[in-house]
Amino acid sequence: MIRFENVSFAFAANGTAPVTVLDKVDLTVGEGEFVCVLGPSGCGKTTLLNLAAGFLFPSRGRVLFDDAVVVAPGPERGVVFQEAALFPWLSVLKNVEFGLKRKGLKGSQLKQTAFAYLESLGLGAHAHKLPVALSGGMRQRVAIARVLALEPRVLLMDEPFSALDANSRERLQDELLRLWVTNRRTVIYVTHSVEEAAYLADRVVVMGSTVEGGIFADMAVPLTRPRSRTDDGLLAMKARLRAVLATQPCCIQPLISPRAM
Ligand SMILES: Nc1ncnc2c1ncn2[C@@H]1O[C@H](COP(=O)(O)OP(=O)(O)OP(=O)(O)O)[C@@H](O)[C@H]1O
Ligand SMILES: [Mg+2]
Predict the structure, then answer these.
(1) Which parts of the chain sit beneath pLDDT 50?
(2) Distance from residue 8's CA to the centre of ligand 1 (Å)
(3) What is the pTM of this model?
(4) Most buried residue, 6, 18, 86, 151, by most Cβ within 10 Å?
(5) How far is the CA of 96 from the centre of ligand 2 (A)?
C-alpha cells in the first residue's frame, strides 16, 4: 500500500553540505498492517513519516501510495502529531468538523458525523468545550477523532502518546487498538519505546545510525491479539527489540565527573 523505493533524503543546510538523513531506504507496508518504526532520537523516523505524508519529498528514489507517487499530502493519509495540533479558538466539535467540511459534509450530517467520532473516543460530553479546557490526553483524543473522521486509509502517527503520563498512554494505546481491530486501517506508528512497539505492532521496523540513515531490522511480532502487557511472549519480544537497539551507538554520553577532569 505504501512503498519506499530506494529513498534517500538530505536536509539542505544553509551554506554547508546537505545532511543525509535517509539513505536508500526500501520499505513496503501492506494494507491493514500495524507497523511501528522504532529507533533512537535523530535517526530519521519523523522524516520517514513526513515523506509518506507528502510533507517532504525524496532527494532520490520514490514513495508510492497504491502504486502512485506521493506528490502532496492527501486525505487518505491522516497524520497524528506528537502534540495535538488543534485550533485553540474552535470548540472540540468544530475542530473535528473542520476537515469534514472540506470533504463536503454540511448541516446535520456534518454535526452528527463529527459527534459520532468524538463519542467513540469518549469525548461526547466535551464537544462544546475549547481545547484549552481539556487535559493533554483528551486533546490528543480530539486530534485522533479529527483524523479518523476523515476516514483515511492510512494513519501516520508520530509518537502520538509520548507526552502523556503512563496511565493515559496505555489507555490510549488500547483505544487505538480497539479502533484498529474494528476498522483495520493501515497504521505506521513512530515510537522510541520498545514497550509500545512490542504491544502495538504486527511488525517493527528498526532504524538506526550505524547504517547511514537506514532500516537495519524488520521484525515480525509473533504474538496473538489481544495482548497482555505482562505476557511472557511480550516480555521476550521487548528483550529482542532492546537487544537489537543496543547494537546502535547512542548519542548520549556518560557525564564526566568534575573530579575526573
Ligand atoms: N528541518 C531540518 N533541517 C535540518 N536538519 C534537520 C531538520 N529536521 C530534522 N533534521 C535532522 O534530521 C535528522 C533526523 O530527524 P528526525 O526528526 O527525522 O529524527 P527522529 O528519528 O524523528 O528523532 P526524534 O526521536 O528525536 O523525534 C536529525 O539528525 C535532525 O537533526
Ligand atoms: Mg521525531
Answers:
(1) none
(2) 14
(3) 0.90
(4) 86
(5) 25
